[in-house]
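In the previous lecture we treated proteins in isolation. Real proteins rarely work alone, and many bind small molecules. This record shows how such a complex is specified: first the sequence, then the SMILES for pyridoxal-5'-phosphate.
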Amino acid sequence: MAFTGTGKVWMNGTLVEWADAKIHIASHVIHYGSGVFEGARCYDTTKGSACFRLDAHMRRLIDSAKIYRMAPAYTQAQLQDAVLDTIRANQMKSCYIRPIVYRGYAALGVNPFPCPIDSAILLWEWGTYLGPEAIEKGVDVTVSSWTRMAPDTFPSLAKTSANYANAQLIKMEAILNGYAEGIALDSQGFVSEGSGQNIFVVRDGILMTPPMSASILPGITRDSVITLAQDLGYRVKEEMIPREMLYIADELFFAGTAVEITPVRSVDKIVVGSGGRGPITEALQKAFFGIVTGEVPDTHGWMTFVY
Ligand SMILES: Cc1ncc(COP(=O)(O)O)c(C=O)c1O
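The predicted 3D structure, ligand included, written as tokens:
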């Protein structure tokens, strides 16, 4: 979604105008992808604005920083407060939240240690990621010719800017071939995830999703879906999924902050199930959207109210 170019951005503890939220071209992150970031959402619920699982997102940010030997100047709690302060300063009801911790300006070279660890929080308005119809009708996707990072190359548990070079290749190829998204396999050929979302397969009433060892980002929506599915009495298995399971699934759906829960209606032009949103996907959407809109009780304590 296009930026409005207005509002305030939090940079190292100070709120600055959107137009002034700049860094130097010689900043390390621009040249070497040395940033870790998050993507969370604040929803306009029936009880007021609330962030979905803000603590889990900020914990993952701190984890990502730790993997890359970055020590942010702020604790997880301070960054959570800074997100809430920034939403209030912008008087936003709902928004997408983008905290980033990155190596800044000092010297350029592969060695990142001389550079400072800077932090920023950006907010902007963001609707449905794959179009307004996608949530109901589903999307057409393809298995990517690009593979996710092999273990011990780029760590997939870290949400680092560098990983999104791979994600961009997956996304561009899918778009240019006429698909909404690409699903990447891992280095062994098992299903991993989409360019920016996790995947769930439903077959015979059982949910399956690739485990952490399949080069996935451990998604917070994925974790929420597992919890909600178990609440609804479904069995969930985290296991390696062969590519062809995508074609013979009864239902398939993506889970992620951007896509929320979006059905997949075909893979490589093979229709999934009945070619629309399946009943289990719909039940999970109802449970998820019920919580984030405030229409059903937040029994898991996932919502943090802003005002
Ligand atoms: C590569 C990748 N996988 C999965 C996800 C889903 O994670 P989450 O549900 O925490 O947004 C994202 C989104 O950030 C992602 O970029």
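Summary for your notes: The mean pLDDT is 97. Helices lie at 28-32, 54-67, 76-90, 134-137, 163-176, 220-231, 245-248, 279-293.
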